[in-house]
Design a protein that fits this description.
The structure is a single chain. The protein is mostly helical. The protein has two domains: 192 residues, Growth Hormone, Chain: A (Up-down Bundle), CATH 1.20.1250.20; 203 residues, Up-down Bundle (Growth Hormone, Chain: A). It has 17 helices and no strands. The radius of gyration is 21 Å and the shape is globular. The termini are close together.
Length: 421
């Protein structure tokens, strides 16, 4: 860890580990509250969109691609908002930001239910992108990292619990949204989802989240954050993290979008293709459990690098072995084990090298690149598929995962003291 971050973390740890039983109990309440709000937040603000795509296209008289562009706008706006959101989280904590974001998200989904033109839809989803940057994983992780400052095992378990629960967002909200659309129509369904989200997220964020007493309140806190970030962005480790999680994020997003279509292209029945693609969600939980367990024995960067390398091999083999059921299952298993580990590995790597004082600022800067890649990569992959076929797309995915593996391996072998040079 850099000298600046080490000093800051040591002071923060001494200030935050003395909270005793009450502190631990409230930490559990915070994790439980965030697990609920992240599950509903991702379900309403992100996953439900796919259910509403075709009904909206029919009602607005637009093509599916034009409607789908709204979600891309939301993700890109979220990426642009990640750095300022991170700075706010470091300076003031998550309670105010996440409470305000919950209100904004609720209003935006209500507005979504009333759109009648593409311009209105795009404007609403730009607002949803702002709300997403305020309330989803980046902010939730920052709250957990701050609360469990100096408690590495507690932080790892909290992040694991949060991501495992929130990993069921699509499982819950895709069928729920479908039932609501079927019974009430897409506009009324959105009103119901907005009210569900607001009723849960606004009070939980406002009443449960709080900040611990920590050195971030000292007058020198802003200068400490600026020094840590300034040192980081001038050194290799930070940019290796950017490269790793941007490359893997784009590759994972591409597979998530195109896997069903590619498996059908390889000759598998649509039901089997959808079932195999659905394994990615289950395997992401398995990968997170595996990663968290191994972090007590092995470096987090090398664990992630190994799983990213496995993803690269799986993607490269899919065009060759994927025409058989066994081959397709094997490749999906190989890719799926690394599918969800980025979300729990990156916080560990940032805190381990740079400390917690500037965690959210650092996370926000990395998210600006990685989230943008998640938005842009599937569109680029569709273009590549038309020009070079699905095999070319899988080759690009394999290269992206290999870049991520090499970047994290290189990152691990750079001494922590380099971060302060």
């Amino acid at each position: 860890m850099s000298s600046t971050a080490a000093a800051t973390t040591g002071t923060a740890a001494s200030a935050t580990t003395g909270g005793g039983l009450h502190s631990r109990r409230h930490g559990v309440r915070i994790v439980a509250a965030l697990a609920i709000t992240q599950t509903i937040g991702y379900g309403v603000l992100y996953y439900a969109f796919s259910v509403f795509l075709l009904p909206m296209a029919a009602d607005l008289g637009a093509g599916a691609a034009q409607i789908a562009a709204a979600l891309t706008i939301s993700v890109l706006v979220s990426a642009l908002c990640a750095p300022p959101a991170g700075r706010h989280l470091d300076a003031r904590g998550g309670r105010g930001l996440m409470s305000a974001g919950s209100v904004l998200g609720t209003i935006a989904v209500l507005a979504w239910s009333q759109v009648h033109t593409l311009i209105q839809l795009y404007a609403v989803f730009a607002v949803i992108g702002v709300a997403s940057a305020m309330v989803l994983y980046q902010s939730a992780f920052a709250v957990i990292v701050a609360w469990f400052d100096g408690q590495a095992r507690g932080r790892a378990n909290a992040l694991l619990a949060l991501t495992v629960v929130a990993g069921f967002a699509s499982t819950i909200f895709l069928p729920l949204s479908g039932l609501l659309v079927e019974h009430f129509g897409w506009r009324q369904a959105l009103v119901i989802l907005a009210l569900v989200y607001g009723a849960a997220a606004i009070p939980l964020h406002a009443l449960v989240l709080r900040r611990r007493e920590r050195t971030a309140r000292a007058p020198a806190a802003a200068e400490q954050r600026a020094a840590i970030v300034g040192h980081a962005i001038r050194a290799r480790p930070f940019w290796l993290l950017v490269a790793a999680f941007t490359a893997n994020g784009g590759a994972a997003a591409t597979v998530a979008v195109l896997l069903v279509g590619y498996l059908i292209h390889l000759g598998h029945p649509p039901v089997l293709a959808a079932t195999l693609a659905g394994l990615l969600g289950v395997l992401s939980v398995t990968g997170r459990l595996l990663t968290t367990g191994l972090q007590t024995r092995l470096p987090a960067a090398l664990i992630a690098a190994a799983l990213f390398a496995l993803q690269s091999v799986a993607a490269a083999l899919l065009p060759l072995a994927g025409r058989t059921v066994a081959g397709a299952v094997g490749c999906v298993l190989g890719f799926g084990l690394g599918f969800g580990i980025a979300s729990i590995t990156l916080p560990h790597l940032i805190v381990d090298r740079y400390g917690t004082t500037a965690y959210a600022t650092m996370s926000g800067r990395i998210a600006m690149f990685s989230v943008a890649a998640k938005a842009a990569a599937p569109l680029g992959a569709l273009t590549l598929a038309q020009a070079a076929g699905y095999s070319g797309v899988m080759a690009a995915v394999a290269v992206g995962c290999a870049i991520a593996a090499v970047a994290l391996t290189t990152y691990h072998h750079i001494p922590f003291r380099e971060a302060s040079k």
